[in-house]
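PT: before anyone asks, these are the final sequences, not the draft ones from last week. 910 residues across everything. Please model them as a single complex and drop the result in this thread when it's through.
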Amino acid sequence: MAYLELNNVSKSFAEMSAVEDFELTVEQGELVSFLGPSGCGKTTTLRMIAGFEIPTAGKIKLDGEDLTTKPPNQRQVGMVFQSYALFPNMTVAQNIGFGLRIARRPKAEIESRTAEMLELIHMSDFAKRYPYQLSGGQQQRVALARALSIQPRVLLLDEPLSALDAKIRVELRSEIRRIQQQLGITTIYVTHDQEEALSLSDRIVVMSAGRMEQVGTPFEIYNYPKTSFVASFVGTLNQLRCIVADAGDGALAFDGQTIRVAGPIEQPSGGRALMMLRPEELRLGDQGGENRLSGTVQSVTFLGAIVRVRVLLGESTLTLDLLNERTLRLPQVGQQETLSFPPHACWVMAEG
Amino acid sequence: MRRRNRRDARFARPGGPYRRRDLLGLLPFVAFVTLFLLLPASTLVLGAFQGDGGRFTLEHVAGLSQRFILEGYRNSIQVSVVTALIGGAFGFLLAYAVTLGELPTFVRGTVITFAGVASNFAGVPLAFAFISTLGRTGIVTGFVKDLGIDLYKQGFDLYTFAGLSLTYLYFQFPLMILIMAPALDGLKREWREASENLGATVTQYWRHVALPILLPSILGSMVLLFGNAFGAYATAFALTGGTLDLVTIMIGAQIRGNVLYDPGLGYALAVGMIVIMAFSIGLYSLLQRRSERWLR
Amino acid sequence: MKRRRLWPLFWLSLGAVYFFLPLVATTDFSLRAQRGTLSLLAYQRVLQDSQFVSSFLFSLRMALFTILFGVLLIVPTAYWVHLRLPHLRPLIELLTLLPFVVPVIVLVFGLIRIYSRPPLLMTTTPATTDLLLVGGYLVVALPYLYRSIDVGLRAVDIRSLTEAAQSLGAGWGTILMRVVFPNLRTAALTGALLTLAIVIGELTLAQYLARPAFGPYMNLLGKNRAYEPAALSIMSFALTWAAMGTIYWMTRGQQAQIGGGH
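LR: through. Structure below.
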């Protein structure tokens, strides 16, 4: 039996359905991300686990216990909010010790646990500061420590890094992961930032319009997306409109050329389909694999570690990502180039 | 190419170091405030310390220690404190009911508008309204009399300090509501959720988080209510025609040259009033700034 | 969940009783001028009283002048502070808080002392006394009027608008007429309505400066009549309600309208 289970959880507000049929099992110590655009229901689902919303249908079980209608202050889950929500009238130490004070723990215990938490977030010198004296990143670390100090069974994070600068975001997210792994605490992480989700998670739940699109490891989500939403939401995606030349043989026709895919195609021969391909799987020149396409270079953008080349083929464009090298020969705009890739790099999905 | 408009507003370019000249722009405003506020106030202050022949004297200020003057201050302070405390407490509850009480949305709009009206209703119309209600021939007095209870025989009298306080509350409650409603809005929902998440009950949340955060605002508002009542004149005058012993009424009497015509005393009274009001407003500003730091 | 609503409803009901009782009682009282029956006699008498009309119109005139001078004084000042002297904002805000430090009765005392003797003699003719009166009213209304305009300027970020207009070659006149004033319509109207409410019922200044305003008229009536004051009270309330209601409707409840003058 999994540690945290959500069975057929649904939530609607008046006429609108915010979450439908959410089904998930989480093992102890796992970090699972809920990833999706605004309004997809990820925060609502998180709030149901926290107890701030009651599901209209379904059950939530934690360690065997049915949590579905339990009040939020009895659930022993820790929550970190997007806006930090530190109590402004208390110092950092008092904020962190709040949960234990409420639980009437002895003073010595509160003090030692607070010190422990401050050590964990590397902010031991800040004990007597007030929230308004701290930067955003520091406030969020304190919020994390505060949530962890009550030793919750599950840690919930609601877009904790959205309000922070890009550089702090990257630093802090690896901090969060380090702490999570060190403590071995089961964690649910809500975000709309796919880079965050991919880099932090053991598994990702991609959501859209209240429904789960796919659950899987970051590798699976990225390389083997099950729906076109997941494919286009995560990472950059090339999509080519093709005709299925031979479904059983795995052949597509594009602009007079043949593209081979690995394995048979679901869509019927003669019908239309989308060929999907990640930019990094394409190579310039003809050494990259069996499939060859040629077109005109439209733009070359130097992004530092990556060089992004857009190539025009007929009416479609393909994006190609090259790894930077000091001796790299940058393609010229307007030049004809050949692109190549192996059959197993691409996959086929239905149109629409 | 468009020809440059010779009259383009050079000074309209904001930012950059300001020139001394720019202060000239404030002249009309400063002149007005000086002529109609600072000058009158300072002339009173001067007058309070000026004896015959223009010499400096403290005898007017000393005159404030006369028994009936001290009575007046005591009465004014008493009414102000009472209406500040009751107005503050119940006003807070009303503000809470309207913001966090989870009532239908139209309730808040109606109450806030009404609060704006009621806080402006002070003065003569308010006095008349209460006379019509609880005066000797008022409707409620009569109604209760028909039920067998004679209010005035029982000791109630609208034309006393108790009655005045009751009347003052009509604009004290709304003032409290109008100040506290935005402050209560400033209580972030996440604070309550965070505290619940950490195991606190609603009561514990209010005790440890919400009330401490709101305290500067509540105290500041009560101080403002105090000042508001202390400086009120028209309502008291319209209610009793000047028979009540309040500092404002006494100043009015001095202006008209009634009773003991002692201009110096009048000035001293006025200065005493200014000092108390300045202290109140100062304290209010301080507390307001503290609360803004948390409730931004 | 329902239990949470019980206490708020209770407090509001209590509040409603306290606030409506006087209104209901006063309305009732005002309808009893004619013995034995409910009638609008008191209202009729008031409306037909020539003094009512003249004093109301007088106060209305004073209010309009106050608003006019107020807007002409405050809008450019507030604009200038926003534009060129933003660091002086705290000082100006302090100045606008000063009227609270000097209650009206003290203010009128000082005004009389200075302006009723040479060299600044203003109390000899009605015209100059009215000017003094308007000045006094403006001082009382200043905090509210300034705040309305200030909030309005902040809401439209007048600095950026001015910069944009200037970069497009606009001169002073254009900027003031086409950029500043139009964007302040709501704020100015709000301030104007507040000032109107304050001035119409004002008693202290008018009484001690001996001008025939609405406040002293009401007070005088209260001394001599029984039912007419109640009628006046209701009419005054209705007028204030109209003003505040308009403000609230215009600003969609964005500005808290704290009143003044008691």
